[in-house]
Amino acid sequence: MNTQGRPTRLAQDVDPGAYDDTLSGSRGLEQAEPLLFERGSLDVTGVDLPEPKGTQSRLGNVERKGVIGLPGLSEPEAMRHYVRLSRKNYAIDLGLYPLGSCTMKHNPRLNEKMARLPGFADVHPLQPEQTVQGAYKLIEELARWLMVLTGTPAVAMSPKAGAHGELCGMLAIRAALDARGEKNRRRVLVPESAHGTNPATAVQCGFYCDAIPADATGRVDMEAFKAKLGDDVAGIMLTNPNTCGLFERDIREIADLIHEAGGYFYCDGANFNAIVGRVRPGDLGIDAMHINLHKTFSTPHGGGGPGSGPTVFSEALAPFAPLPFVVKTKDGASLKMAENECDVDGTGATPFGRMTAFHGQMGMFTRALTYMMSHGSDGLKQASEDAVLNANYILASLKDVMTPAFEGTCMHEALFDDRFLKDTGVTTLDFAKAMIDEGYHPMTMYFPLVVHGAMLIEPTETESKSGLDRFCDVLRGLTEAAKAGEADRFRAAPVHAPMRRLDETLAARQPVLRWTPPVADAAE
């Protein structure tokens, strides 16, 4: 699972501990909770309703012919089951989320309130246009904010996530190259410090990747970059700030060189939250960039999704932006759904196609615009500055005991390697597992791959100084314990979590996704 071959199971001579010190299996307020199938019964139900009489089923030949196979629970049992499961999850409402390159920031409740307003929460993509003019106006306003913040003239709102936005940008680049009659350009330069999805997206679009190594500072090696330029280069996919948490200082020169070579500049905008209000990517020479609304503008992330990844374009790529898109009309606004509707004003628009059936994620649009309007331009700028400040505070607070991967300051995330754990018998994975016992979600581990034993920490702008101090105190204490020879403590961790350490490699390769009843003992 990892090229460094990190161990994913407990050492054989380490006692992991267990919940065998209580009769119930629970510990105080931490309730033990089995699977529903283990505690419920298939022959009972928590609903006490009589069988209907004198009725005839209207399901025809699709009526259920066998038992459904779900366990029956009383209402309190079902409620307690899910409440107890929720207590086993880490959440931003519980504590700091230090995952690097993920931006697990607080989602203001105001955003949720606005997204639930009638007309937004219940809007349907198949409604007549005259009934969704408010939704069109909101999309148009959000698009305006995105174009102003990025310094670009066009944006596609339909991509549903970051990687979807990458796909949008690279398909536009391919369409532009094909329109120029340069189908020979299929090589995409991808720095080692770029986001991991970038190479996969390029290949998905029919390109092949050529890696650019990082220099000693963690940024693009300019000599290696220049050596790889040629007439078959389609463009570059660069993340800025990159996944080492560093700003690419040579980005303007990179843009100029890739354009001189006839290629396009795709910028991964996953870390845009570090520079909003301070830098406009359009001024840096980018041709396309996706924006993760969930990372930069506070909409729910991951399991709280769905995501949203609008993609902005330069003048060179704007004509190839995908369908559909909102345009102003004399009667309000309309959604252009077909290619023959696009070039009625002679703009030369030739969309490469369409990304989705409809036009993006309305709930995410509402949340993101709420966040923007409640902060204002000055507030968005301060949020970025505070994110960078918090990351550098962590870096400065821990650099005397942990080992920063690179010299100098960082952007929105602090990156450490595992040199401080040398000869302790403790690995990055062990260190992260010990953080769980301390009540913290681990930071991003072993990524970026250019740093050995990487520990990537992103506090975001939403954490207070006292919260950061407490977090740093814990990491400092764990570091001192590792250097003091307490390796067994780390290899046993987590001890206080609901589950012990698992064999993660085996679980990934042989997942058990279906519960089966235990086989009765033959002796019984």
Automatic annotation (TrEMBL):
It holds the Pfam family GcvP2_C. Residues 1-26 are annotated as: Disordered. SUPFAM superfamilies: PLP-dependent transferases. It catalyses: N(6)-[(R)-lipoyl]-L-lysyl-[glycine-cleavage complex H protein] + glycine + H(+) = N(6)-[(R)-S(8)-aminomethyldihydrolipoyl]-L-lysyl-[glycine-cleavage complex H protein] + CO2. Keywords: Oxidoreductase, Pyridoxal phosphate. The keyword Oxidoreductase applies. It is an enzyme of class 1 (oxidoreductase). GO terms for molecular function: glycine dehydrogenase (decarboxylating) activity. Its EC number is 1.4.4.2. The keyword Oxidoreductase applies. Residues 183-302 form the Aminotransferase class V domain. Residues 383-484 form the Glycine dehydrogenase C-terminal domain. The glycine cleavage system catalyzes the degradation of glycine. The P protein binds the alpha-amino group of glycine through its pyridoxal phosphate cofactor; CO(2) is released and the remaining methylamine moiety is then transferred to the lipoamide cofactor of the H protein. This is glycine dehydrogenase (aminomethyl-transferring). It comes from Hyphobacterium lacteum. The gene is gcvPB.
